[in-house]
Amino acid sequence: MNTVKVVVKNVPDYSASREKNDLGFLTFDLQTDLTHLFNWNVKQLFLYLTAEYETANNKLNQVVLWDKIILRGENAILDFKNMNTKYYFWDDGNGLRANKNITLTLSWNIIPNAGLLPNIFAHGQHSFKFPEEYTTSRM
Amino acid sequence: MDVSTLFDDVKRMNKRQFLYQVLSFGMIVSSALMIWKGLMVVTGSESPIVVVLSGSMEPAFHRGDLLFLTNYPEEPVRVGEIVVFKVEGRDIPIVHRVLKLHEKENGTVKFLTKGDNNSVDDRGLYAPGQLWLTKKDVVGRARGMLSLLV
C-alpha cells in the first residue's frame, strides 16, 4: 500500500516582491507506491503535494508545492530524498513565521480515458512548524 | 443529396403534412434546448459541457476532449482541482488546475491557476492588474471527461 513519509527542514524568508509576503522554504522526503491505482481506463495520475494551514489573514490557505505527472506504464514507485519544492511557498500576508501547524498532504487526480475525474487524498499527512524568526541568509 | 428531389418531396406533401413536419422539427430543436437548459440547472454551471481548446493541460487533456462541469456553491473550490474559468472581458473558457488558494473566514476566496503543460502560472493570462481569480470567474469544476482521440 502507500507509505507517505515527509520530512522537512524549513526557513521563512522576507523576500522583496511588490507585496512583501512570507516565503517558506522546505525540502521533503517522499516514499510511496501507486502502481495499484492504474488500470486500462487510467491515462495518467497527477500527483501534487499540498501545504494547508491557517493564518490570521486567511482562515484556509492551500498551496501546491510540488507536482508530478505519472503516465500509465511509467514507474509509479517514488522514492525522493531532500527534494526541493517546485513552486514558491508564498503566503498571502505574513502568516508563515511561527506558524505552528502546516499540514502537508499528498493527493492525486486520476485522469481517465473516459469517465469521472476523482481527486484522492493519501492516507498519510505530515505536519510541521515554521520557526519564530525570519532568516536572511541565502539558501 | 439532390436538392431538387428534396423540394419535390415537399411539393408532394399537402399543407397539413408540411406543417406537421415543421412542428416535429421544432419539437426536436426545443427538446434539445430543454435538455441543455436542464443540464445548466442540474450542474449549476452556465456551460456544463466544454471542449478543451488548447494543449496547456497535456498530457491529461488534448484539444477536442469534452469536459463535464459542475458549479455547486456548497462545494468550495480546492487546490488541485481542474477548474474552467473565464477572464473578465474575454469569452474563451480556460481549463487549468488550481495551484494556490487563500480563503477568508467570511468565505471570500482567491486562487491562482496554472496549466499542467505550462511552465508558469496563469497570472499572465488574467486581466491587467488582476493577480487572483475569484469565485465569480469560475464557470465550473471538471468532474468527468470524454476523450474521443485515443
Automatic annotation (TrEMBL), chain A:
Signal peptide: none annotated. It is found in: Endoplasmic reticulum membrane. It is a single-pass type II membrane protein. It holds the Pfam family SPC22. GO terms for cellular component: signal peptidase complex. InterPro entries: SPC3. GO terms for biological process: protein targeting to ER; signal peptide processing. Keywords: Endoplasmic reticulum, Membrane, Signal-anchor, Transmembrane, Transmembrane helix. Essential component of the signal peptidase complex (SPC) which catalyzes the cleavage of N-terminal signal sequences from nascent proteins as they are translocated into the lumen of the endoplasmic reticulum. Essential for the SPC catalytic activity, possibly by stabilizing and positioning the active center of the complex close to the lumenal surface. Belongs to the SPCS3 family. This is Signal peptidase complex subunit 3.
Automatic annotation (TrEMBL), chain B:
It is found in: Endoplasmic reticulum membrane. It is a single-pass type II membrane protein. InterPro entries: LexA/Signal_pep-like_sf, Pept_S26A_signal_pept_1_CS, Pept_S26A_signal_pept_1_Ser-AS, Peptidase_S24_S26A/B/C, Peptidase_S26, Peptidase_S26B. GO terms for molecular function: serine-type endopeptidase activity; signal peptidase activity. Its main location: endoplasmic reticulum. It catalyses: Cleavage of hydrophobic, N-terminal signal or leader sequences from secreted and periplasmic proteins. Signal peptide: none annotated. It comes from the Eukaryota. One of its GO terms (cellular component) is signal peptidase complex. Residues 36-122 form the Peptidase S24/S26A/S26B/S26C domain. This is Signal peptidase complex catalytic subunit SEC11. It comes from Asbolus verrucosus. The lineage of its organism: Eukaryota, Metazoa, Ecdysozoa, Arthropoda, Hexapoda.
